[in-house]
């Protein structure tokens, strides 16, 4: 990968310094430069952006052959994609927790899909089809100043195709190994002043094949989606854009519960699975108003609901439902562990402890003895139903005003209100909610033809943490409109989610049969409670960078050096047996990233991305989750006669301590059918390593997978 890069440096530097190329770029009309929106909420040329932005356009998305959003993000430097299992994936920028996407803000057409109740982004369940995506902009760095808390490390903005660009009918079917079976259908229609796009899609696969012990891994997924987007011009200055998105599906999950207490052979078998039924609903309405060519505003409202429904049956020793054991656990989980070890060895004496602990332990031991089967040395057991249903909802309303005060000065300001609610009997013992108010403003000042100063801040206040102010200041030196150097300082925050801070984690069990200690409904003894006083994680980021576009060469290049400090970090794993979240951790990151997109004539396109990261982390989990080297390389080729191919390489020296290398090959042929066309494509993925994918249980029987697709456009 280094060889073509060295070859390209000479013409690249020559084009930047020669008078002819410089003159051409100096007089290049700004309107001919590509623009990005995600960085500051203002449309800007990449060289003027106060940070690094990766853009995955529709051609690159199609050529990748990706079936899911996380697979697309492997093309972004520094972005780490770690599957939890076959139907759940974590995406993180620069590492940190591999269990949740706690520190990313993810938007779909301006609507956040970050679940504030449990700090999650359910990538496999986002109700948007790959085929509906026009482009993805990834701001690689903190951007709380634009998008609020949780945009701590990066912002991923998924932009779908506008209805006016979606007229006609599109059909696609995909079949392949590992149970791959996807479909997509959409229709776009226009009328006087309005356009509509309706799409239906589905996805299915079997997930990973086997666990670390060789047993089958039950982690497949099945989902279906509906998306409706309508745009309507009200008059020359006003328009409405509204959307409706629905998703329904199921994610397989093994019931891996193992009894804590030794119990006899079970006349009632516990459920072999505990699948999650996932249902998402989202709606949005946006009113756009152009007051004059230099002044515009919009008002956008969003409604969303996430449902993760899971009920399963398990069997446990009746002692696990003892109220006294629950009280003892609340006093000291370590004491309960010692008591359990005594029981395992047949010791019915209470461990040494406080008078209250010994008194409760004595009562528990009496209950254990009363349910003991002396001949087998096991305890009487009961089987019951556990309801882990989780429902979350959000309403948010945002007003944004964009004003050009002069030819050299632009200002964007806004106000946002967001109400989040989460319902869970297991994790929250009912319902919790959060109200957040945000006020933001940013400016862009062209001091002269070369110097560009940008700054802004967001003030946020919610009813769970103290108010926070997130500023950013950036200075860009535009060598030409297409080439810029930048220096950026920014601060960002992440608010602890409801679960981290206010967990009331306990397992009510109903329909116990036989009754446990005289109870048909009871609570499992283990529980956990959030501290309630967690503070926001805080990040300070410094960046030096360069962005350039060489029109004659068809080459775009972005380079950056960074140093990020995250303090008050909440790194502890959240487990009912070890629930101790705190702000006692920190993570410092420094390194370099580069991205190159080179269109070599009309037939070839080369894309390279690389990240080098050095880190200093106080928590063991953060220390093991950041690879030092990661990157991707892609070659897209149009062979003529409607044949095309793409070849991608993805690699990381460590994804959760496992090496990852893969090559993807896509070959496609387009056939003309009257006024329409049919595309036939095949995708082959070949793993070059012999490691599990991210976690020990994520294994395939074969290191390669193949699927084919047929797409019809009319």
UniProtKB/TrEMBL annotation:
InterPro entries: Beta-barrel_TonB (IPR000531), Beta-barrel_TonB_sf (IPR036942), Plug_dom (IPR012910), Plug_dom_sf (IPR037066), TonB-dep_rcpt-like (IPR039426). PANTHER family: BLL4766 PROTEIN, TONB-DEPENDENT OUTER MEMBRANE RECEPTOR. Its main location: membrane. Coiled coil: none annotated. This is Iron complex outermembrane recepter protein. Residues 427-670 form the TonB-dependent receptor-like beta-barrel domain. Pfam families: Plug (PF07715), TonB_dep_Rec_b-barrel (PF00593). It comes from Pseudomonas linyingensis. It is found in: Cell outer membrane. Belongs to the TonB-dependent receptor family. Keywords: Cell outer membrane, Membrane, Signal, TonB box, Transmembrane, Transmembrane beta strand, Transport. GO terms for molecular function: siderophore uptake transmembrane transporter activity. Residues 48-154 form the TonB-dependent receptor plug domain. Residues 1-23 form the signal peptide. GO terms for biological process: siderophore transmembrane transport. Transmembrane segments: none annotated.
């Amino acid at each position: 990968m280094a060889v073509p890069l060295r070859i390209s440096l000479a013409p690249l530097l020559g084009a930047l310094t020669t008078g002819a190329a410089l003159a051409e770029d100096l007089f290049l009309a700004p309107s001919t430069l590509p623009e990005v929106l995600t960085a500051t909420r203002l449309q800007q040329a990449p060289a003027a952006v106060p940070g690094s932005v990766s853009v995955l356009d529709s051609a690159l998305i199609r050529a990748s052959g990706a079936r899911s959003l996380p697979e697309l993000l492997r093309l972004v430097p520094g972005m780490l994609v770690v599957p939890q299992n076959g139907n759940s994936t974590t995406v993180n920028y620069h590492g940190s927790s591999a269990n949740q996407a706690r520190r990313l803000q993810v938007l779909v057409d301006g609507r956040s899909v970050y679940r504030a109740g449990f700090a999650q982004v359910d990538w496999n369940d986002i109700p948007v089809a790959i085929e509906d995506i026009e482009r993805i902009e990834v701001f690689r760095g903190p951007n709380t100043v634009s998008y609020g808390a949780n945009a701590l490390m990066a912002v991923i903005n998924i932009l779908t195709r506008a209805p006016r660009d979606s007229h006609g009918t599109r059909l696609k079917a995909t079949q392949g190994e590992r149970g791959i079976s996807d479909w997509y259908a959409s229709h776009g229609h226009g009328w006087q002043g309005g356009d509509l796009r309706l799409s239906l899609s589905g996805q299915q696969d079997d997930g990973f094949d086997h666990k670390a012990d060789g047993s089958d891994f039950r982690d497949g997924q099945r989902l279906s989606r509906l998306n409706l987007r309508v745009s309507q011009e009200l008059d020359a200055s006003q328009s409405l854009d509204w959307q409706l998105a629905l998703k329904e599906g199921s994610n397989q999950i093994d019931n891996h519960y193992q009894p804590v207490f030794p119990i006899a052979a079970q006349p009632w078998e516990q459920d072999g699975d505990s699948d999650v039924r996932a249902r998402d609903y989202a709606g949005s309405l946006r009113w756009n108003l152009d007051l004059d060519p230099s002044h515009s505003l919009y008002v956008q409202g969003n409604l969303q609901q996430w449902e993760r429904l899971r009920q399963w049956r398990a069997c446990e020793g009746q002692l696990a439902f003892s109220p006294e054991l629950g009280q003892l656990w609340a006093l000291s989980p370590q004491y309960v562990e010692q008591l359990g070890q005594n029981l395992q060895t047949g010791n019915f004496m209470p461990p040494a402890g406080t008078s209250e602990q010994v008194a409760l332990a004595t009562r528990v031991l009496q209950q254990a003895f009363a349910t003991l089967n002396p001949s087998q040395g096991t305890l009487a057991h009961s089987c019951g139903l556990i309801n882990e249903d989780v429902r979350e909802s959000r309403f948010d309303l945002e007003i944004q005003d964009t004003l050009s005060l002069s030819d050299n000065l632009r200002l964007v300001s806004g106000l946002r209100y967001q109400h989040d609610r989460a319902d869970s009997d297991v994790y929250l013992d009912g319902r919790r909610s959060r109200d957040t108010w945000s006020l933001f403003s940013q400016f862009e000042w062209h001091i002269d033809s070369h110097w560009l100063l940008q700054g802004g801040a967001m003030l946020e206040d919610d009813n769970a943490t103290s108010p926070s102010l997130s500023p950013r200041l950036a200075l860009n030196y535009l060598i030409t409109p297409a080439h810029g150097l930048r220096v950026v300082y920014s601060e960002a925050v992440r608010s602890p989610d409801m679960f981290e801070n206010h967990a009331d984690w306990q397992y009510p069990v109903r329909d116990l049969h036989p009754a446990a200690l005289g109870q048909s409904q009871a609570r499992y003894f283990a529980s956990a409670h959030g501290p309630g006083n967690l503070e926001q994680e805080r990040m300070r980021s410094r960046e030096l960078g360069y962005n350039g576009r060489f029109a004659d060469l068809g080459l775009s290049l972005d380079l950056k050096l960074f140093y990020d400090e995250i303090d008050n970090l909440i790194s502890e794993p959240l487990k009912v047996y070890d629930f101790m979240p705190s702000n006692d951790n920190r993570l410092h990151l420094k390194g370099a990233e580069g991205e190159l997109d080179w269109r070599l004539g009309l037939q070839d396109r080369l894309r390279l991305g690389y990240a080098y990261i050095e880190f200093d982390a106080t928590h063991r989990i953060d220390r093991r989750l950041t690879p030092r080297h990661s990157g991707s390389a892609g070659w897209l080729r149009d062979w003529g006669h409607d044949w095309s191919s793409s070849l991608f390489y993805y690699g990381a020296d460590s994804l959760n301590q496992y090496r990852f290398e893969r090559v993807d090959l896509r070959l496609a042929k387009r056939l003309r059918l009257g006024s329409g066309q049919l595309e036939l494509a095949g995708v082959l993925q070949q793993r070059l390593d012999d490691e599990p994918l991210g976690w020990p249980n994520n294994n395939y029987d074969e290191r390669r997978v193949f699927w084919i697709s047929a797409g019809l456009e009319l």
